[in-house]
Structure formats: C-alpha cells, structure tokens
Design a protein that fits this description.
With 502 residues, the protein is an alpha/beta fold. It has helices at 50-53, 77-95, 110-124, 134-148, 157-162, 173-176, 178-190, 221-234, 240-246, 250-257, 262-269, 273-284, 295-298, 303-317, 336-341, 358-368, 381-389, 403-406, 410-419, 477-487, and strands spanning 10-13, 22-27, 33-37, 69-70, 73-74, 100-104, 129-131, 165-169, 195-199, 212-214, 289-293, 326-329, 348-349, 353-354, 395-399, 422-427, 440-443, 452-455, 461-464. A seven-stranded mixed β-sheet has the order 5-4-17-16-15-6-7, with helices on both faces. It has a five-stranded parallel β-sheet with strand order 10-9-8-11-12. Strand 4 (69-70) and strand 5 (73-74) form a beta hairpin. It is globular.
C-alpha cells in the first residue's frame, strides 16, 4: 500500500528548515518510523530533500534525556519543577522581574512559544525572553517593520513559479531550501525565458542554473541595491501611482541613492559595470520579479539596511502584493515565523504588536488577564548573556537550543552560565554544551513526539503530529512551562490540558 493511502500514516511537518514540507509518517513497530513526502501539502507536493527523506533515521534514544535531574542527579518531576519555580520566584522577589530570563528557539512549536511569552511578559512582568531566531531573522523583522509597519512577508511560494525573474541574494537556495529551488527550476524548465540572477560573493550550487551571477565584494549589497533604485528612478521604471498612494519618503530615498551610479557601484562592489547594467536593465524591464533573500543578507552589521534596500526596489516599482512579484525572506528554522507571530522576540508582543505601544500593551494585558504586564523591551540574545555574566540576570531558562555552541563568543556564554545562580535547560539530548552548564535539566519531547503547529516562510500554518510515545519521563515544553507557572502562583492563566486549548 502506498504511503499516500496508508491509513496508518500520519500527516506532519518536516522539522529541518523554514520551507515547512509536509510529510507522511508511519511507525514501523520497533520504535522507528518511515517518512515520505505528503503529496497534498502545498509547500512540497510530496517532494523531500535529502534531509527530509532521512528524517526517520534521526530518531532513537541515543543520548536522549529521559529523566529530570538536579546537579546531575535524577529526580522526580515534582522536585525539578519545585526547584525551578522557587528559584525564579526568589530572584523576582529579591531583585525584580528583570532578574530572570528565558532564551528559546525556532525549534519550539507555536504553542510552546506562546506559553513562554505569556508567562514571561504577562505574568512575571519582564520582556526578558528572546530566541535564537534573533541571530538569523532580526534584520528581516526590523526591515519589515520599517517598510510595512509590521513583520509581514508579502509573498508566497507560488510567486516563485509565477515570476519571470528570480533574484537570489544572500541565499544558497539550492542547498539551504532545496525544495523551493527545485520548484523554481521546474518552472524555468517549463518557461525557459524565466531568468535567475544570483548575487553572492561565492559561486554556490545556486549558480548552476543562473543566467547572471554577480560575485560582488562582501558587504557591498546595500550599494548594489541603492544603485538599482537610482537606475529605476532615473529611467522612469517606477509605479508613481503606487509610490504616491502607498509609500512615504520617496524623495529622501531617491536623494540617498543619487550618488550610486553604475560606475560608483562597480567601484564599491568590484563588479564589471556592464554586468551591473545588465542586471539593472533586466530588473527594470521585467514586471514580475521576486527577490529571495536569506542569511547572507540578514546576518550582517548592516543587515536591516540590506533588507530595506531590497524592499525599496519593489516598492518603487509597485512589484509587491502581486502575483509573481515581491521581496521574499526565507527562514532557516522550522518555526522562526511562528515564534515571531506570537511575539517570540524581546521587543514584540503577539500578533506583531509592539511591546512599547501602550495600546498594544493594554490589549494583550486584558486578553491575558495579566497581573503584571511588561512595558519595555527586554534583553536581546547577546545582551541577555552579557547581563548573566554581569550578575544582573540571576536565573535563566534555556529551551530547545544550545547557545554555548551557537552564540557568538561561545566561551564567554559558557563562562556566564557557570556564574549564574540558576540555569535551567529543557532539551532532548543529555550532553550538549549547554546542558552540561545546567543546574536543572528537564527532558523534553522531540519532533516525532510533539503535537502542535508551526508556521513556514510563506506564513502557512501546518500541523506537527505526535507519532511516537514520549520516551522515559520526557514532557512537552508547554507542559513544563505551565507546571512552573502554576507553582509560581499563576494557576488561572496556565490551566491548559493540551495544545488545542492553547
């Protein structure tokens, strides 16, 4: 019987990247599963990359955390949760709400993220909750808010197939989001006149089918797109009706770009002026353009400016909110977008509301029946660990991420955690660099055991289904948070029995 018709197969979502491919998962009866693509899922239509195809091989109990532990000694859940609640409550009583913090992850489900934010921002009363998505997506978040007033991605995967020009900038889509790349190549096979431009200092796998590769000098992206803005503006390739009715600051932006003619851009970018002109002309004369960008744009000191120069080219030409046209940020983690939707960053509230906006604060506080609502931006990822090192944060709860390995200056992060009064880590593995720094370790459920939702790069919400039973005494992250909240005296806000109630 084929997986598509196998009644034993459950639909779920691949946990690897932000594409959010649908999968069909069938237990094998020996603790493992078989995984195939879901033909009905609109992200991948049954296709899977090598990582998704091998997903079943990643499951196993090797090095799994199976029991709670305090200082390396296995304990009951009650003992572990009591210690976490007492430690956080004591720090808050002595030093105030800003003396505690959560550091969470794009690997969490949206329900986990929501409960963590509700507890920290609405009941503890601090915004000291940030996520490892900060490292990859903060530039896009701020760029979107600058441009649109909210962190919204104005496009969908179908646009990639309907565009006549795809610009890949700071994105090796062939390796990092291969299902999307294959969708583009299939569209190009059907319409050979479709063009692909790759902007990247390196010649990556994404260049294999590119019509133009702009191997620009690292860090010169802003100049390249400012030059594009000037070319479009000077040449009359603008949608003035759209600009006048739907944008602001055109004159200022035009003046900002005025010095970036092709010759200057060539000097800054180390590109051939003729190649730059070819790209500018192609962009100008192709109404249906999608510009896909990812971490090569985001993870830079001027990442937000890069994002906005890309978006500005689309605003100037009205190539946004239309079929086959728009700027498109593709995310790295499976639920980076879901976390952003429920306010997973230290400067956000749920539904893209602003934590420093009194109207937004009041709305969320009333909805949550919050006793102590945060009213200012909390500590962001890197600053959070600096505050731990300085002794300003006395207790931290780290969930589904390994900052001792993944944050910049990992040795500093490790030293900071070793000085912290209380370090709580929720994870599925027993020997990560961060788990080894923990006072309390809480065993969490993994991909095949969790139940809830994730949101992919095009803002599509998909189910992640529980396929296998939780091993040992592993518990869901949302359950752990609710149990600690109740022990801190916040019973009324966290009496959830399952993800559906959340």
């Amino acid at each position: 019987m084929s997986p598509a018709t196998d009644t034993c197969a459950k639909k779920s979502t691949c946990p690897y990247c932000g594409v959010g491919c649908g999968v069909l998962v069938s237990p094998t009866g020996d603790g493992g599963v078989t995984v195939t693509g879901d033909p009905s899922h609109p992200a991948n239509f049954g296709k899977l990359c090598s990582k998704g195809s091998a997903l079943g091989e990643t499951l196993g109990l090797e090095d799994r955390l199976l029991y709670p532990a305090i200082n390396g000694t296995p304990v009951s859940w009650d003992m572990a949760l009591d210690k976490v609640a007492a430690g956080f409550s004591s720090a808050i009583k002595k030093y105030g709400p800003d003396s505690v913090a959560f550091y969470v992850s794009g690997q969490l489900l949206t329900e986990d993220y929501y409960i963590a934010n509700k507890l920290m921002k609405g009941y503890i009363g601090s915004a000291n909750i940030d996520t490892n998505s900060r490292l990859c997506m903060a530039s896009s978040v701020v760029g979107h808010k600058r441009a649109f007033g909210a962190d919204i991605v104005p496009g969908c995967y179908e646009d990639l197939e309907q565009a006549d020009l795809i610009v890949l900038t700071g994105s090796n889509l062939a390796w990092c989001h291969p299902i999307l790349y294959q969708r583009i190549l299939k569209a190009k096979d059907a319409r050979p006149e479709m063009k692909i431009v790759v902007i990247d200092p390196r010649e990556t796998a994404s260049c294999d089918q590119a019509d133009i590769h702009l191997a620009l000098a690292p860090g010169s992206d802003v100049s390249l797109f400012r030059g594009l803005f000037k070319y479009l503006s000077d040449g009359g390739f603008t949608d003035l009706n759209y600009v006048l009715n739907h944008t602001e600051n055109y004159a200022v932006t035009e003046e900002d770009a005025s010095a970036f003619d092709v010759e200057r851009v060539a000097e800054i970018s180390a590109l051939d002026p003729e190649l730059i002109s070819e790209f500018y002309k192609l962009f100008a004369e192709t109404p249906k353009v999608v510009t896909v960008y990812s971490q090569g744009v985001n993870q830079a000191v001027d990442g937000t400016d890069k994002v906005n120069t890309i978006i500005n080219a689309h605003l100037l030409t009205g190539r946004i909110g239309k079929v086959g046209a728009g700027p498109f940020s593709v995310t790295g983690q499976p639920n980076a977008m879901g976390g952003r939707e429920v306010g997973g960053l230290a400067n956000q509230l749920a539904s893209h509301m602003d934590i420093q906006n009194p109207i937004h604060q009041d709305r969320v506080q009333r909805y949550w029946k919050s006793p102590n609502m945060a009213d200012k931006t909390g500590l962001m990822a890197v600053d959070l660990f600096k505050a731990i090192d300085a002794g300003e944060v006395k207790a931290v709860w780290i969930m589904a991420t390994n900052p001792v390995d993944s944050l910049p200056d990992a040795d500093f992060v490790k030293a900071a955690l070793e000085k912290c009064d209380l370090v709580v880590v929720s994870d599925i593995y027993g020997h990560t660099d961060t788990v080894l720094c923990a006072d309390v370790v809480l065993p969490s459920t993994g991909w095949s055991e969790k139940d809830g939702t994730v949101t992919n790069s095009e803002r599509r919400i998909s189910r992640q289904s529980s396929i296998l039973p939780a091993p040992g005494e592993a518990r869901h992250d949302w359950w752990q948070l609710c149990a600690v909240a109740e022990r801190m005296g916040f019973d009324s806000g966290f009496s959830f029995e399952d993800p559906a109630q959340i």
